[in-house]
Amino acid sequence: MHPAQELSTPLAPAPWQRTALGANLLSPGGSLGVTIFEEMTTLAVQTGAINLGQGFPDEDGPAEIREAARAAIAAGANQYAPGKGILELREAVAAHQERFYGLAPDPASEVIITTGATEGIAAALLAHARPGDEVLTFEPFYDSYGAIIGLSGATHVTVPLTAPDFMPDLDALEAAFTAQTRVVLLNNPHNPTGAVFPPAVLQRVVDLAAKYGSIIISDEVYEHLTFGVAHTPVASLPGAGERTITISSAGKTFSLTGWKVGWLSGPEDLVAAVRTVKQFLTYSSGTPFQSAIAKGLALPDAFYEGIAAALEQKRDILSQGLRAAGFDVFTPQGTYFVNVDTSPLGITDALDLARRLPALVGVAAIPVPVFCHEEGAQRTRSLLRFAFCKKDDVLEEAAVRLATLRGRL
Ligand code: PMP
Ligand code: GLN
Predict the structure, then answer these.
(1) If you take atom 3 of ligand 2, which residue's CA is the nearest one?
(2) Does the CB atom of residue 195 touch ligand 1 within 6 A?
(3) Cα(38) to centroid of ligand 2, in Å?
């Protein structure tokens, strides 16, 4: 069994979950404090369903990276790394930013290594947002954003992304900025919708952030998973460099989600504040994995092109199956998630369907409303997210199973 599929035990609701800010983490009407990913993975395990819910690949990343971690352990890289990460990986992150985007963060003072992007997001928000501040995100938003904004005491303000293309309305974006907007937390490519924001949208965010004196925290963990469109790091746009922290992770690019190696880069003053917080979250992150990921980041361009091409094919296999099952499919330009509207099958409550789907047809998915506050949850109430980072034959089998759904409802 994949370790991510161990049965979870219920947790007590955390304090932020009792507030409206973290309400998206609560199972509506229930008191379980588990994330939707854990809830759906548990259901998948209990029913033996194909797990297209929680996003993790079913094939491990490059053998040479895994071998490098083994070698690092054998060579004695087993004690605390420096708080900001080992120099070899900070240099590799800087070289990666230069190679792909022409950015040149200083590995000595403008890059830190984190325990996954999750810690980078948490440390950056806790460093830069406090009670009285507003943090702006698009909605739907990745689950940890609501939780950490809640913990920071800031107010979470959202701008909707609506089907079919999940692009923001730029007037609504402008209207959401206030004098209190301290942080704009971007996610591009975007989970759960699969949207990839074009430079014009990103530039508008930068211009508004400059006008209102906000900083930008940009979660770009899916930077290499785009299909036919280029990823633009917001930090590369005019006016963005001095106010942007960019976050990424080895989990998605190298199919090593369990290693939890992440990183962030940005101007020295913004990064230094994040580092201060990181000291008291984890202090430092896994030493042998860091040197292995440094080798991964140095892989040739062909590796990066290959992962996107393979995933695009998987997207198409699953999308075809979802269409054949009777859903409206919103083709993603990035990430490894595809969203569907279930209403053509007469469904109005995706959360209810997601809870029944594993038993009904043997496939697990994630309901999109859990990535939203109340109004957004209404808007997205019939949407489901499926992960396609799985072997082709697994996706084909999922399609066969989903084709039986209409007759079982
Ligand atoms: N941000 C987004 C948008 C994600 O989808 C994920 C999930 N993998 C993360 C952050 C967390 O990344 P990590 O596993 O590196 O902590
Ligand atoms: N990022 C993964 C997803 O969106 C899940 C990670 C997690 O379980 N927290 O599916």
Answers:
(1) 55
(2) no
(3) 9
What atom in ligand 2 is closest to the CA of residue 55?
A: 10
Task: Determine how many CB atoms are found less than 10 A away from the CB of residue 85.
Answer: 26
Q: Are 252 and 225 in contact (CB under 8 A)?
A: yes
Q: From ligand 1's centre to the CA of 404, what distance in Å?
A: 32
Integer distance in angstroms from the first to the last C-alpha of the chain? 30
Residues in the chain: 409
Q: Is 249 in the pocket of ligand 1 (CB under 6 A)?
A: yes
> Tens of pLDDT along the chain (409 residues)?
455 555 555 555 554 444 444 444 433 333 336 889 999 999 999 999 999 999 999 999 999 999 999 999 999 999 999 999 999 999 999 999 999 999 999 999 999 999 999 999 999 999 999 999 999 999 999 999 999 999 999 999 999 999 999 999 999 999 999 999 999 999 999 999 999 999 999 999 999 999 999 999 999 999 999 999 999 999 999 999 999 999 999 999 999 999 999 999 999 999 999 999 999 999 999 999 999 999 999 999 999 999 999 999 999 999 999 999 999 999 999 999 999 999 999 999 999 999 999 999 999 999 999 999 999 999 999 999 999 999 999 999 999 999 999 999 9
Residue 367 · residue 335 · CB < 8 Å: no
Say how many Å lie between the CA of residue 78 and the centre of ligand 1. 25
Q: Which helix (H) or strand (E) is 122 found in, with range?
A: helix 116-128
Confirm or reject: Cβ of 192 under 6 Å from ligand 1.
no
Give, using CA atoms, the residue closest to atom 3 of ligand 1.
191
Question: What's the CA-to-centroid distance between 82 and ligand 2, angstroms?
Answer: 27
3-state DSSP assignment of residue 338: strand
Q: Which among 218, 249, 368 is the best mutation to test ligand 1's pocket, defined by most ligand atoms within 8 Å of the CB?
A: 249
| Cα 74 to ligand 2 centroid, rounded to whole Å | 31
Alpha carbon distance 152, 205 (integer Å): 22
User: In order of start, what are the domains of the chain with their CATH numbers?
Assistant: 34-60+303-407 (3.90.1150.10), 63-298 (3.40.640.10)
Amino acid at 93: V
**What is the number of the ligand closest to the CA of 118?**
1
Residue 251 Cβ contacting ligand 1 at under 6 Å:
yes
Calpha distance 178→342 (Å, rounded): 36
